[in-house]
Amino acid sequence: MRSLDRRLHAWRADLADAALKGQVEAARFVVGTPARVRVAAAPLRREPRPDAPLDTEALYGESVRIFEETAEGWAWVQLDGDGYVGWCPTEALTRPGAPATHRVARLRTFVYPGPSIKLPPSMLLSTNALVAVLDIEGPFARTEDGFIWAGHLAPVAERMADWVAVADRFVGTPYLWGGRTSIGLDCSALVQVALVAAGIACPRDSDMQEAAFGLPTEAFDLDALTRGDLIFWKGHVAIARGDGTIVHASGHHMETVIEPAAAAVARIGKAGSAVTSVGRPR
User: Fold this and answer.
1) What residue intervals traverse the membrane (predicted)?
2) Cα–Cα 20 to 30 A to 123, which of 45, 109, 149, 182?
3) Sign of torsion, CA 13 19 21 23?
4) In the chain, which segments carry CATH 2.30.30.40?
5) CATH number of the domain at 163-279, please?
């Protein structure tokens, strides 16, 4: 049996995705049950407990498959979007609803219980959250869970022309390991969120992104960077902006920042990590 990345394959010794039968050994194989995320962002943790490490987050409206539910209120799921596997609170999930028609195209937007900005919001959705618009009432889009300012939404098929500009919107957002929203996110989430907004498929973690986009470089040339290049270090990724600066969610600064590429390369190198590759998403 071949070894598979457990971050991307629902596979344990006692239970595995039925699609993996014949590829892995498990005591039981099951077909996942479809569901969708009903909260602004649902944590995917490494283990079924609230203090377990946060690996990533599932955004409102994203679809998942549930392979197991525990009596303690946890579900072992796989995200349909990027394939990530983890433990999610069962209460954050609900039945599949109407197909998504729009996505949040701003940094964040509120969901209101009625078509009025004077009502107390019920949720705060981040970039790329998916919604099914049922009707338009004045400037508002009506969804299953409330009303959203229609100008903050874009059809799911509409793509952002400049994905680097999407990343720039997150400047000042606190760094959060495993985070994937405008409330907090990490370096690889910033890349993924920005690329997905532009219609470019992107895996979740920086090592996966480097495998997908990176080209090893023996002699890193700062002057050769162009807008949209990805710069990889071991465990970190940044986005070149084409003017000698980069934008990245930085654990050093503990927020998303724009800074001179030369300064970041020197600082990270001094800490013991050299640039490993440079890539360009297509």
Assistant:
1) none
2) 45
3) negative
4) 16-94
5) 3.90.1720.10
